[in-house]
Design a protein that fits this description.
Chains A, B: InterPro entries: Glutathione-S-Trfase_C-like, Glutathione-S-Trfase_C_sf, Glutathione_S-Trfase, Glutathione_S-Trfase_N, GST_C, Thioredoxin-like_sf. Chains A, B: Pfam families: GST_C (PF00043), GST_N (PF02798). Chains A, B: One of its GO terms (cellular component) is cytoplasm. Chains A, B: It catalyses: RX + glutathione = an S-substituted glutathione + a halide anion + H(+). The structure is a homodimer. The first copy, chain A, is an alpha+beta fold. Chain A folds into 2 domains: 75 residues, Glutaredoxin (3-Layer(aba) Sandwich); 118 residues, Glutathione S-transferase Yfyf (Class Pi), Chain A, domain 2 (Up-down Bundle), CATH 1.20.1050.10. The first copy, chain A, is built from 9 helices and 4 strands; from the N terminus they run βαβαββααααααα. In chain A, helix 1 packs parallel to helix 3, helix 4 packs antiparallel against helix 5 and helix 4 runs parallel beside helix 6. The two termini of chain A are 28 Å apart. Chains A and B meet through strand 4, helix 3, helix 4 and helix 5 of A and strand 4, helix 3, helix 4 and helix 5 of B.
Protein backbone atom coordinates (compact mmCIF):
# COMPACT_ATOMS: atom_id res chain seq x y z
CA UNK A 1 0.00 0.00 0.00
CA UNK A 2 1.51 3.38 -0.98
CA UNK A 3 2.16 5.98 1.69
CA UNK A 4 -0.55 8.62 1.97
CA UNK A 5 0.36 12.30 2.23
CA UNK A 6 -2.31 14.78 3.28
CA UNK A 7 -1.34 18.36 2.51
CA UNK A 8 -1.45 21.05 -0.14
CA UNK A 9 0.81 21.38 -3.18
CA UNK A 10 1.39 25.09 -2.52
CA UNK A 11 1.96 24.85 1.26
CA UNK A 12 5.55 25.44 2.38
CA UNK A 13 5.60 22.43 4.70
CA UNK A 14 3.99 20.03 2.21
CA UNK A 15 6.59 21.12 -0.36
CA UNK A 16 9.43 19.76 1.82
CA UNK A 17 7.81 16.32 1.75
CA UNK A 18 6.96 16.40 -1.98
CA UNK A 19 10.55 17.33 -2.85
CA UNK A 20 11.87 14.55 -0.60
CA UNK A 21 9.58 11.98 -2.25
CA UNK A 22 10.86 13.11 -5.67
CA UNK A 23 14.50 12.95 -4.54
CA UNK A 24 13.91 9.42 -3.25
CA UNK A 25 12.32 8.40 -6.55
CA UNK A 26 8.99 7.59 -4.91
CA UNK A 27 6.20 8.09 -7.46
CA UNK A 28 3.50 5.78 -6.14
CA UNK A 29 2.27 7.86 -3.21
CA UNK A 30 -1.31 8.85 -2.51
CA UNK A 31 -1.54 12.66 -2.28
CA UNK A 32 -4.71 13.93 -0.62
CA UNK A 33 -5.17 17.67 -0.93
CA UNK A 34 -7.13 19.23 1.91
CA UNK A 35 -9.66 22.06 1.74
CA UNK A 36 -8.23 24.50 4.27
CA UNK A 37 -10.74 27.24 3.37
CA UNK A 38 -13.45 24.81 4.50
CA UNK A 39 -11.46 24.15 7.71
CA UNK A 40 -10.81 20.48 6.99
CA UNK A 41 -7.50 20.71 8.89
CA UNK A 42 -9.42 21.61 12.05
CA UNK A 43 -11.99 18.79 11.71
CA UNK A 44 -12.10 16.20 14.53
CA UNK A 45 -10.97 13.51 12.07
CA UNK A 46 -7.90 15.51 11.05
CA UNK A 47 -7.03 16.71 14.57
CA UNK A 48 -6.98 13.04 15.57
CA UNK A 49 -4.04 12.71 13.14
CA UNK A 50 -2.33 15.98 14.11
CA UNK A 51 -3.49 17.59 17.35
CA UNK A 52 -2.06 20.94 16.17
CA UNK A 53 -4.43 20.84 13.17
CA UNK A 54 -1.72 21.48 10.60
CA UNK A 55 -0.58 19.92 7.34
CA UNK A 56 1.20 17.80 6.19
CA UNK A 57 0.43 14.41 7.71
CA UNK A 58 1.89 11.13 6.46
CA UNK A 59 0.22 7.78 6.92
CA UNK A 60 2.03 4.51 6.28
CA UNK A 61 0.05 1.50 7.46
CA UNK A 62 -0.30 1.83 11.24
CA UNK A 63 2.04 4.85 11.41
CA UNK A 64 0.66 8.40 11.33
CA UNK A 65 3.13 11.28 11.66
CA UNK A 66 3.08 15.06 11.34
CA UNK A 67 5.80 17.78 11.23
CA UNK A 68 7.27 18.02 7.72
CA UNK A 69 10.91 17.59 8.74
CA UNK A 70 10.10 14.42 10.71
CA UNK A 71 8.19 13.06 7.70
CA UNK A 72 11.18 13.76 5.40
CA UNK A 73 13.52 11.98 7.82
CA UNK A 74 11.19 8.97 7.90
CA UNK A 75 11.03 8.82 4.09
CA UNK A 76 14.84 8.89 3.94
CA UNK A 77 14.98 5.88 6.30
CA UNK A 78 12.12 3.98 4.68
CA UNK A 79 13.57 4.38 1.16
CA UNK A 80 17.22 4.05 2.18
CA UNK A 81 19.38 3.03 -0.79
CA UNK A 82 16.83 4.39 -3.27
CA UNK A 83 17.26 7.76 -5.03
CA UNK A 84 19.46 10.44 -3.45
CA UNK A 85 21.09 9.85 -0.04
CA UNK A 86 19.83 12.72 2.10
CA UNK A 87 21.23 11.93 5.57
CA UNK A 88 24.38 10.24 6.87
CA UNK A 89 24.02 6.68 8.11
CA UNK A 90 23.10 6.68 11.84
CA UNK A 91 26.03 4.32 12.44
CA UNK A 92 28.40 7.20 11.59
CA UNK A 93 27.77 9.14 14.79
CA UNK A 94 30.18 12.00 14.03
CA UNK A 95 28.75 12.65 10.53
CA UNK A 96 25.28 12.42 12.09
CA UNK A 97 26.25 14.97 14.76
CA UNK A 98 27.32 17.46 12.06
CA UNK A 99 24.09 16.84 10.11
CA UNK A 100 22.02 17.36 13.27
CA UNK A 101 23.87 20.60 14.05
CA UNK A 102 22.91 22.06 10.67
CA UNK A 103 19.37 20.63 10.83
CA UNK A 104 18.83 22.31 14.21
CA UNK A 105 20.33 25.60 12.98
CA UNK A 106 17.80 25.72 10.12
CA UNK A 107 15.01 25.82 12.69
CA UNK A 108 16.61 28.19 15.20
CA UNK A 109 18.44 30.57 12.83
CA UNK A 110 16.18 30.59 9.74
CA UNK A 111 12.72 29.11 10.15
CA UNK A 112 11.95 30.91 13.43
CA UNK A 113 12.33 34.30 11.69
CA UNK A 114 11.25 33.61 8.11
CA UNK A 115 8.06 31.79 9.11
CA UNK A 116 7.08 34.83 11.19
CA UNK A 117 7.90 37.18 8.27
CA UNK A 118 5.81 34.99 5.94
CA UNK A 119 2.94 35.01 8.42
CA UNK A 120 3.10 38.80 8.76
CA UNK A 121 3.40 39.59 5.05
CA UNK A 122 1.35 36.84 3.44
CA UNK A 123 -0.97 34.91 5.75
CA UNK A 124 -2.29 37.99 7.56
CA UNK A 125 -2.95 39.64 4.19
CA UNK A 126 -5.02 36.61 3.15
CA UNK A 127 -6.95 37.08 6.40
CA UNK A 128 -7.54 40.77 5.57
CA UNK A 129 -5.16 41.93 8.34
CA UNK A 130 -2.24 44.35 8.22
CA UNK A 131 1.21 43.16 9.26
CA UNK A 132 2.51 44.30 12.66
CA UNK A 133 5.52 46.53 11.80
CA UNK A 134 7.40 45.86 15.05
CA UNK A 135 7.26 42.09 14.55
CA UNK A 136 8.24 42.33 10.90
CA UNK A 137 11.18 44.65 11.60
CA UNK A 138 12.56 42.53 14.45
CA UNK A 139 12.46 39.34 12.40
CA UNK A 140 13.99 40.91 9.28
CA UNK A 141 16.81 42.27 11.44
CA UNK A 142 17.53 38.89 13.06
CA UNK A 143 17.22 37.01 9.78
CA UNK A 144 19.60 39.40 8.00
CA UNK A 145 22.25 38.85 10.65
CA UNK A 146 21.84 35.08 10.38
CA UNK A 147 21.94 35.11 6.57
CA UNK A 148 25.25 36.96 6.78
CA UNK A 149 26.55 34.01 8.79
CA UNK A 150 25.09 31.51 6.32
CA UNK A 151 26.81 33.39 3.50
CA UNK A 152 30.14 32.86 5.26
CA UNK A 153 29.34 29.20 5.93
CA UNK A 154 28.41 28.62 2.26
CA UNK A 155 31.78 30.08 1.27
CA UNK A 156 33.33 27.09 3.07
CA UNK A 157 30.90 24.31 2.20
CA UNK A 158 28.73 23.78 -0.89
CA UNK A 159 25.48 22.85 0.83
CA UNK A 160 23.66 23.62 4.06
CA UNK A 161 24.95 20.53 5.90
CA UNK A 162 28.35 20.11 4.24
CA UNK A 163 29.58 19.30 0.75
CA UNK A 164 26.67 17.05 -0.17
CA UNK A 165 23.05 17.92 -0.88
CA UNK A 166 20.89 16.73 2.04
CA UNK A 167 17.55 17.03 3.80
CA UNK A 168 18.77 20.27 5.39
CA UNK A 169 18.86 21.92 1.95
CA UNK A 170 15.32 20.69 1.34
CA UNK A 171 14.24 22.13 4.71
CA UNK A 172 15.48 25.57 3.56
CA UNK A 173 13.80 25.44 0.13
CA UNK A 174 10.17 26.53 0.63
CA UNK A 175 10.87 29.74 2.55
CA UNK A 176 13.94 30.61 0.47
CA UNK A 177 11.68 30.44 -2.58
CA UNK A 178 9.05 32.54 -0.80
CA UNK A 179 11.50 35.36 -0.08
CA UNK A 180 11.21 36.21 -3.81
CA UNK A 181 7.41 36.16 -3.69
CA UNK A 182 7.49 38.42 -0.61
CA UNK A 183 9.70 40.96 -2.41
CA UNK A 184 12.63 40.03 -0.15
CA UNK A 185 14.63 38.07 -2.73
CA UNK A 186 17.54 40.47 -2.33
CA UNK A 187 18.12 38.91 1.10
CA UNK A 188 19.31 35.89 -0.93
CA UNK A 189 20.76 37.46 -4.09
CA UNK A 190 22.78 40.18 -2.31
CA UNK A 191 24.81 37.46 -0.58
CA UNK A 192 27.08 35.80 -3.18
CA UNK A 193 27.52 32.36 -1.60
CA UNK A 194 23.87 32.13 -0.60
CA UNK A 195 22.89 33.17 -4.15
CA UNK A 196 25.12 30.45 -5.63
CA UNK A 197 23.69 27.85 -3.25
CA UNK A 198 20.16 28.78 -4.30
CA UNK A 199 21.04 28.64 -8.02
CA UNK A 200 22.56 25.17 -7.52
CA UNK A 201 19.70 23.82 -5.42
CA UNK A 202 16.85 25.33 -7.42
CA UNK A 203 18.18 23.74 -10.63
CA UNK A 204 17.44 20.24 -9.29
CA UNK A 205 14.53 18.43 -11.04
CA UNK A 206 12.80 17.86 -7.67
CA UNK A 207 12.58 21.62 -7.09
CA UNK A 208 11.58 22.36 -10.67
CA UNK A 209 8.67 19.96 -10.15
CA UNK A 210 7.49 20.91 -6.66
CA UNK A 211 8.92 24.26 -5.49
CA UNK A 212 6.26 26.92 -6.01
CA UNK B 1 40.27 12.54 26.70
CA UNK B 2 36.98 13.80 28.20
CA UNK B 3 34.55 15.75 26.03
CA UNK B 4 34.82 19.52 26.47
CA UNK B 5 31.68 21.62 26.84
CA UNK B 6 31.96 25.39 26.49
CA UNK B 7 28.92 27.18 27.85
CA UNK B 8 27.40 28.70 30.96
CA UNK B 9 25.72 26.89 33.83
CA UNK B 10 22.78 29.30 33.84
CA UNK B 11 22.24 29.47 30.07
CA UNK B 12 19.09 27.72 28.81
CA UNK B 13 20.88 25.95 25.97
CA UNK B 14 23.86 24.80 28.07
CA UNK B 15 21.38 23.39 30.59
CA UNK B 16 20.01 20.92 28.01
CA UNK B 17 23.49 19.49 27.54
CA UNK B 18 24.35 19.41 31.26
CA UNK B 19 21.12 17.53 32.04
CA UNK B 20 21.82 15.07 29.21
CA UNK B 21 25.36 14.42 30.51
CA UNK B 22 23.90 13.74 33.96
CA UNK B 23 21.20 11.43 32.58
CA UNK B 24 23.90 9.50 30.68
CA UNK B 25 25.99 9.18 33.83
CA UNK B 26 28.91 11.14 32.31
CA UNK B 27 30.83 12.86 35.10
CA UNK B 28 34.29 13.23 33.58
CA UNK B 29 33.62 16.10 31.19
CA UNK B 30 35.57 19.33 30.94
CA UNK B 31 33.19 22.29 31.46
CA UNK B 32 34.59 25.61 30.30
CA UNK B 33 32.47 28.57 31.37
CA UNK B 34 32.69 31.54 29.03
CA UNK B 35 32.70 35.24 29.92
CA UNK B 36 29.83 36.54 27.81
CA UNK B 37 29.96 40.00 29.39
CA UNK B 38 33.50 40.26 28.00
CA UNK B 39 32.22 39.09 24.59
CA UNK B 40 34.22 35.86 24.55
CA UNK B 41 31.47 34.18 22.50
CA UNK B 42 32.08 36.72 19.70
CA UNK B 43 35.88 36.32 19.69
CA UNK B 44 37.47 35.04 16.44
CA UNK B 45 38.60 31.89 18.25
CA UNK B 46 35.05 31.09 19.42
CA UNK B 47 33.36 32.06 16.13
CA UNK B 48 35.67 29.56 14.45
CA UNK B 49 33.89 26.91 16.56
CA UNK B 50 30.38 28.33 16.11
CA UNK B 51 29.94 30.89 13.32
CA UNK B 52 26.74 32.12 15.02
CA UNK B 53 28.78 33.04 18.11
CA UNK B 54 26.53 31.23 20.56
CA UNK B 55 26.96 28.74 23.36
CA UNK B 56 27.13 25.82 23.96
CA UNK B 57 29.83 24.15 21.88
CA UNK B 58 31.00 20.57 22.38
CA UNK B 59 34.45 19.34 21.40
CA UNK B 60 35.30 15.65 21.28
CA UNK B 61 38.69 15.01 19.68
CA UNK B 62 38.45 16.21 16.08
CA UNK B 63 34.69 16.86 16.31
CA UNK B 64 33.37 20.33 17.18
CA UNK B 65 29.59 20.85 17.22
CA UNK B 66 27.16 23.54 18.25
CA UNK B 67 23.34 23.68 18.67
CA UNK B 68 22.33 22.23 22.05
CA UNK B 69 19.84 19.71 20.70
CA UNK B 70 22.41 18.32 18.23
CA UNK B 71 24.94 18.02 21.07
CA UNK B 72 22.42 16.12 23.23
CA UNK B 73 21.68 13.73 20.35
CA UNK B 74 25.40 13.12 19.86
CA UNK B 75 25.90 12.38 23.58
CA UNK B 76 23.04 9.88 23.47
CA UNK B 77 24.76 8.06 20.58
CA UNK B 78 28.26 8.25 22.02
CA UNK B 79 27.17 6.93 25.42
CA UNK B 80 24.59 4.44 24.11
CA UNK B 81 23.90 1.72 26.64
CA UNK B 82 25.05 3.94 29.52
CA UNK B 83 22.63 5.77 31.84
CA UNK B 84 19.10 6.52 30.67
CA UNK B 85 18.03 5.67 27.11
CA UNK B 86 16.90 8.99 25.65
CA UNK B 87 16.11 8.16 21.99
CA UNK B 88 14.80 5.10 20.18
CA UNK B 89 17.34 2.99 18.30
CA UNK B 90 17.75 4.31 14.73
CA UNK B 91 17.08 0.77 13.47
CA UNK B 92 13.46 1.12 14.68
CA UNK B 93 12.41 3.54 11.95
CA UNK B 94 8.79 3.87 13.07
CA UNK B 95 9.68 4.64 16.70
CA UNK B 96 12.31 7.07 15.40
CA UNK B 97 9.70 8.76 13.20
CA UNK B 98 7.46 9.35 16.23
CA UNK B 99 10.40 10.68 18.27
CA UNK B 100 11.38 13.03 15.42
CA UNK B 101 7.80 14.28 15.15
CA UNK B 102 7.80 15.34 18.80
CA UNK B 103 11.36 16.69 18.63
CA UNK B 104 10.40 18.90 15.68
CA UNK B 105 7.20 20.05 17.40
CA UNK B 106 9.21 21.28 20.41
CA UNK B 107 11.04 23.69 18.12
CA UNK B 108 8.09 24.82 15.99
CA UNK B 109 5.32 24.88 18.63
CA UNK B 110 7.22 25.79 21.81
CA UNK B 111 10.75 27.11 21.39
CA UNK B 112 9.90 29.55 18.57
CA UNK B 113 7.49 31.40 20.90
CA UNK B 114 9.02 30.95 24.34
CA UNK B 115 12.52 31.94 23.25
CA UNK B 116 11.09 35.18 21.86
CA UNK B 117 9.15 35.79 25.10
CA UNK B 118 12.31 35.16 27.12
CA UNK B 119 14.26 37.54 24.90
CA UNK B 120 11.61 40.23 25.28
CA UNK B 121 11.12 39.91 29.03
CA UNK B 122 14.60 38.98 30.24
CA UNK B 123 17.44 39.56 27.78
CA UNK B 124 16.25 43.00 26.68
CA UNK B 125 15.88 44.00 30.32
CA UNK B 126 19.51 42.98 30.93
CA UNK B 127 20.40 45.23 27.98
CA UNK B 128 18.46 48.12 29.52
CA UNK B 129 15.72 47.92 26.87
CA UNK B 130 11.93 47.71 27.23
CA UNK B 131 10.08 44.74 25.75
CA UNK B 132 8.10 45.35 22.55
CA UNK B 133 4.46 44.82 23.60
CA UNK B 134 3.26 43.69 20.14
CA UNK B 135 5.90 40.95 19.92
CA UNK B 136 5.28 39.78 23.47
CA UNK B 137 1.48 39.66 23.01
CA UNK B 138 1.66 37.74 19.71
CA UNK B 139 4.01 35.12 21.14
CA UNK B 140 2.05 34.65 24.36
CA UNK B 141 -1.13 34.18 22.32
CA UNK B 142 0.47 31.54 20.04
CA UNK B 143 2.19 29.77 22.92
CA UNK B 144 -1.03 29.59 24.95
CA UNK B 145 -2.85 27.93 22.05
CA UNK B 146 -0.01 25.42 21.63
CA UNK B 147 0.17 24.64 25.36
CA UNK B 148 -3.55 23.84 25.25
CA UNK B 149 -2.70 21.22 22.63
CA UNK B 150 0.23 19.91 24.70
CA UNK B 151 -2.10 19.60 27.69
CA UNK B 152 -4.35 17.35 25.61
CA UNK B 153 -1.38 15.35 24.32
CA UNK B 154 -0.05 14.85 27.88
CA UNK B 155 -3.46 13.49 28.86
CA UNK B 156 -2.75 10.63 26.43
CA UNK B 157 0.99 10.08 26.94
CA UNK B 158 3.15 10.53 30.04
CA UNK B 159 6.07 12.35 28.40
CA UNK B 160 6.69 14.72 25.51
CA UNK B 161 7.63 11.99 23.03
CA UNK B 162 5.50 9.10 24.33
CA UNK B 163 5.37 7.03 27.50
CA UNK B 164 9.11 7.15 28.19
CA UNK B 165 11.27 10.07 29.32
CA UNK B 166 13.46 11.19 26.38
CA UNK B 167 15.63 13.96 24.97
CA UNK B 168 12.46 15.80 23.94
CA UNK B 169 11.55 16.28 27.62
CA UNK B 170 15.05 17.62 28.22
CA UNK B 171 14.64 20.01 25.29
CA UNK B 172 11.53 21.46 26.98
CA UNK B 173 13.13 21.83 30.43
CA UNK B 174 15.06 25.13 30.39
CA UNK B 175 12.27 27.34 29.08
CA UNK B 176 9.57 25.54 31.07
CA UNK B 177 11.59 26.34 34.17
CA UNK B 178 12.02 29.95 33.04
CA UNK B 179 8.25 30.49 32.68
CA UNK B 180 8.20 30.59 36.51
CA UNK B 181 11.06 33.10 36.65
CA UNK B 182 9.27 35.27 34.07
CA UNK B 183 6.05 35.31 36.15
CA UNK B 184 4.32 33.12 33.54
CA UNK B 185 4.32 29.88 35.54
CA UNK B 186 0.53 29.78 35.41
CA UNK B 187 0.89 28.89 31.72
CA UNK B 188 2.15 25.54 33.03
CA UNK B 189 0.27 25.12 36.31
CA UNK B 190 -3.16 26.08 34.94
CA UNK B 191 -3.02 23.09 32.58
CA UNK B 192 -3.40 19.90 34.66
CA UNK B 193 -1.56 17.42 32.43
CA UNK B 194 1.23 19.85 31.67
CA UNK B 195 1.52 20.58 35.40
CA UNK B 196 1.76 16.85 36.17
CA UNK B 197 4.41 16.36 33.46
CA UNK B 198 6.48 19.19 34.94
CA UNK B 199 6.18 17.79 38.48
CA UNK B 200 7.33 14.37 37.23
CA UNK B 201 10.20 15.69 35.12
CA UNK B 202 11.47 18.28 37.58
CA UNK B 203 11.76 15.65 40.32
CA UNK B 204 14.54 13.85 38.39
CA UNK B 205 18.03 14.15 39.96
CA UNK B 206 19.46 15.53 36.69
CA UNK B 207 17.08 18.50 36.86
CA UNK B 208 17.60 19.01 40.57
CA UNK B 209 21.30 19.29 39.81
CA UNK B 210 21.31 21.45 36.67
CA UNK B 211 17.92 23.13 36.06
CA UNK B 212 18.20 26.73 37.23
Amino acid sequence: MPVRLTGLKHSTCSMRVLITLEEKGVNDFDFQEIDMAAGEHKSPEFVEKNPFGQIPVLEDGDLTIFESRAICRYLESKYKGQGATLMPSPSDIKATAVFEQWASAELTHFDAMISSIYYQTTIRKLQGLESVPEILAENIKSLSANLDVYDTILGRQKYMAGDEFSLVDIFFVPYTNRTFKMGLGNMVTDRPHLKMWWETVSSRPSLKKWST
